[in-house]
């Protein structure tokens, strides 16, 4: 089982940084070697040394050897689907107020990056129920989780299937504290999420495009089951700080997705309308339907379901690539000495 601190050992994930700041992340295995054009480091030379030590390769080049943080781990693990970046995972934990002991529903699971953050936040006393439509993605996520923890967490349930059908069979009504929806069309799951949530519980949706954001917000409002939704996005800009040369980095992690949150109302509660000044920009249902074609504008029935991964720019992988990723995730877990799933 991979250690979280102390001397490095076989099965541990190690991040190697060369003098130019280039990163390589490896898993220590018996007989293993790290090769670069500048030399070789034997895995055996890393075993037993303290975490955050400096080692030299066969040509005398120095490397910093250090265990990766969770944020480092998720950025380097095998991926089937695009991951939720650490900046967004941190916001999800904060905005949804995920706490130790919470019962959390997550859909979909993707490659397991957000699942790992949620599992750490709820602790051993909490429960995470993850739902994923594609079995390949579920297998990759479970492989990554086993590699990170050394085994599949006992408080994590992964269900392959549609959330609308599987959630009522998995969680009784009014027993869930938080619902996290990372999916193409989260508005389709507003009702089932509301049924599962306790009064005051939080639903948070992660979507990639403005059209998805708008459609989700409208459905949350129209349902009458939630408070007025709040929307945001997070952008992170690093800084170069070296002596007197202090300036923003030339590159930044900008738009990855939008977050939209709302709280579950108590049954029978009528939310007061927001008071706002009269405006020429007031909109009608027909205006909304023209902007969001699946909401039923007259004569627009042929566009009743325009939401596909390709249309919203969501990258997809072939079945062949996914099978390769599944094998990589299982090998990843095996290299780290994880118990079989």
UniProtKB/TrEMBL annotation:
SUPFAM superfamilies per UniProt: S-adenosyl-L-methionine-dependent methyltransferases
Name assigned to this protein: tRNA (Adenine-N1)-methyltransferase
Annotated segments matching region Disordered: 291-323
Keywords: Methyltransferase, S-adenosyl-L-methionine, Transferase, tRNA processing
GO CC list: tRNA (m1A) methyltransferase complex
CDD domains recorded: AdoMet_MTases
Domain tRNA (adenine(58)-N(1))-methyltransferase catalytic subunit TRM61 C-terminal: 75-241
Keyword Transferase: yes
Keyword Methyltransferase among record annotations: yes
Single GO biological process annotation from the record: tRNA methylation
GO MF term set: tRNA (adenine(58)-N1)-methyltransferase activity
Record InterPro entries: SAM-dependent_MTases_sf, TRM61_C, tRNA_MeTrfase_Gcd14
Ranges annotated as spanning the membrane: none
